[in-house]
Specification:
The chain is of the alpha+beta class.
Length: about 130
């Protein structure tokens, strides 16, 4: 497949209770801001939030399954958490090719949005499948 600067892919996910609890179990991140409504109500967020790295995992799932796709080698990821993501939020992840280097490696923008608001700003480096 030919990869070109500006190529883009997007996919939406609704963040569910099962996703947050499942991520907490797998990651062992039991921070009560994610799992305990009473605790979360007393924080700056006023209710439970999703783990930032849950969204990181969803980015990874797109890179490995959809764009660039099966066989992608994920080399690097930077993420900046701009706004909280709450349970039942619909998040759209947009992956966009920024550069294609001489080896065919792709620098990607990996941003997450709720409606038009950016909630995670990211960049990744991948080796796409042949």
């Amino acid at each position: 497949m030919e990869w070109n600067v500006g190529n883009e892919f997007s996919k939406s996910f609704t963040i569910t209770e099962d996703m947050v609890v499942g991520f907490a179990q797998v990651s062992k991140d039991k921070n009560p801001v994610h799992l305990d409504e009473e605790y979360a109500n007393k924080t700056i967020f006023k209710k439970r939030i999703a783990h930032g790295m849950l969204l990181g995992g969803l980015i990874s799932s797109i890179l490995g399954n959809d764009f660039p796709g099966n066989g992608t080698i994920y080399l690097n990821q930077n993420m900046s958490f701009k706004k909280p993501v709450y349970l039942e939020d619909k998040v759209t992840i947009v992956i966009k090719i920024i550069t294609v280097d001489s080896k065919g490696w792709l620098s990607l923008e990996t941003n997450c949005y709720i409606e038009d608001n950016i909630v995670i700003e990211g960049k990744a480096l991948v080796i796409p499948p042949k």
